[in-house]
Design a protein that fits this description.
Order of helices and strands: EEEEEEHEEHEEHHH
Largest sheet: 3 strands, antiparallel
Number of strands: 10
Structural class: alpha+beta
Oligomer: single chain
Length: 142
């Protein structure tokens, strides 16, 4: 049976990912022109509400969900999101693809810090962090 492993959308014009984590986690985004989109359902179901027709027609958002049926490579390793509150933990929560974090100049340090400091990391997230850490280390060795 296919299950959601990530319930989210990407909003390119704001470079923003909105994510629903649990069943009644209704997360809404309002665009500058007042249009809205919301993600709901966590990993139990994926629901979208808001001005979906207009936003979809204009390609103003992209589905960013993952399921247990998605291939690890290339889909999951490129699309799995990581939530962060910044280095000191005081910033609002934002989400970025782990792939993107790995490709930053401090990427290897960041990935190592995730593995060291996030003791309750989900197995899939840990696997993707290790994947990108291995890739970055291999690239550095060449």
């Amino acid at each position: 049976m296919t299950q959601l492993t990530q319930n989210s959308v990407y909003i390119p014009e704001d470079d923003l990912y909105i994510v629903s984590h649990h069943t009644h986690d209704y997360v809404e985004h309002t665009f500058r022109d007042g249009k809205t989109i919301a993600v709901d359902g966590g990993l139990d179901y994926g629901r979208r509400t808001g001005d979906l027709y207009e936003l979809d027609e204009a390609r103003r958002y992209q589905e960013w969900c993952l399921t247990t049926e998605d291939a690890f490579e290339p889909t999951i390793v490129n699309r799995l999101l990581w939530g962060t509150r910044g280095k000191d933990g005081s910033q609002p929560m934002t989400y970025r693809p782990i792939r993107e974090l790995a490709q930053r100049p401090d990427g290897v340090e960041h990935l190592r810090a995730i593995l060291k400091n996030c003791l309750n990391i989900a197995p899939l997230h840990k696997r993707v962090v290790e994947y990108w850490l291995d890739r970055q280390m291999s690239n550095a060795a060449q």
